[in-house]
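User: hey, got a sec? need SET domain-containing protein folded
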Amino acid sequence: MSQGGQRFVRVTQGYRDGRCGKTTAAFICGLFPLKLKSKPRRVKALCVAADRFEVPGGERWRNVENMVAWLMELGGECSGAVRLSPADRPIEHEIRMVCTREVRRGDQLVRVPECALLSIETESDDQLLFEEPRFIQLSYILARECNKALTSRWSPYLGTLPSFLDYHRSGGPLILWSDEELQLLDFPYLFSATKWRQEKVDRLISTNCRRFIAAHCLSRAFLLKSSHLDCDKYCLIPLIDLVQHSSSPNAFMTVDSCGDVTLIAAHDIVEGQEVLTSYGNRPVLAFLSDYGFIPESTRDKDQVLINISPVLNDFSPVERYDEGELLRHPGQHSPSTWQPVTPSLYRFLAQILEKRGQGVIRHRVQELLGSLVTHTQGCFLSDLETDCDLLESDDFENARARLACRFRVFQKQGLQEIADRLQPKRPRVSRVVPGK
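Assistant: Yep! Here you go:
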């Protein structure tokens, strides 16, 4: 589909299909550029049989039953109102939790005791890993427990983890993707971030299946925050990690004073309805990176398309955002709240220009901000305080790339006014607005 002379693709769902060797990225809401290149058949060694987890009575299903019994022995609770069952479409999901009867808002569905959590805060004993990212620390611990096999105290839980085949068929976290597959998405940020993760894992974890273990941690771990906890807890939660994600969840997790994790009904749930929770308000690219899928959204747009003409720039940014390229969502969470243009924004931009250099430097900052503002289809500049240090140095290329990621689509007229204030003598350049 072509709009405004640029290539865009709108799809409603997708997965990486290892059988036909094609990759489809799922972008549920909004228009997103998608550049796919030809690729050979995806060849990987499959470590388990194709039907391992698809039918009740299979190996993983027996392991799930054993895990539930293990949790009950540890003092956990599994309400009679829910049960686990195979998903209707195993290629996307393997197991789901459904209600066996009507559930009222506030009812407890599942409780997992604190002693069953696999957490870096309670299990990490390697001082060298304390400064590493949380998923690296947890991957190290999980690799250690997997090496113990049946002697691990978490062996009933380890047997329920997805197989390599499951990730292979559904896409899986990007840390499992090859360079060739990452380049199919053609998003520089995703490629560089994933390569950094892969190199970290390869350097710090020695087991042969280290990336596979890291994929478990990225796609299944939760960050628990509660007034009852001394600190945030990054952990794997048996049983609850089988619950699927939804942007409109009907259940949520709580942590009590004992550290136990409880799954609570957020509202009334009818018999036969699937129990769904939220994995957090994160950027859609974070979902693609960590889980291998793009979640549905309740908003019309969950990402920003920004068009910057390279002709008007007299310097080359480190990471150029060319026509139709996908940008990260501004802020720490997605979706963010749309904000109108206000006088305070004008003043803030003016203060940047006044405080961040004189002469040539001032001109370059004007180029930096002015070109971004002028060539967007109505955007909002947010969280600039965190990037102002870049404007004090000569690293304008990095500053421009960072600032580009702070834009959000909103009022066109207000942005043009900002552009006029920044560069009143600069001739106006026609903007390309997709869809018109």
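Quick note: The first strand starts at residue 2 and ends at 3. Let me know if you need anything else on SET domain-containing protein.
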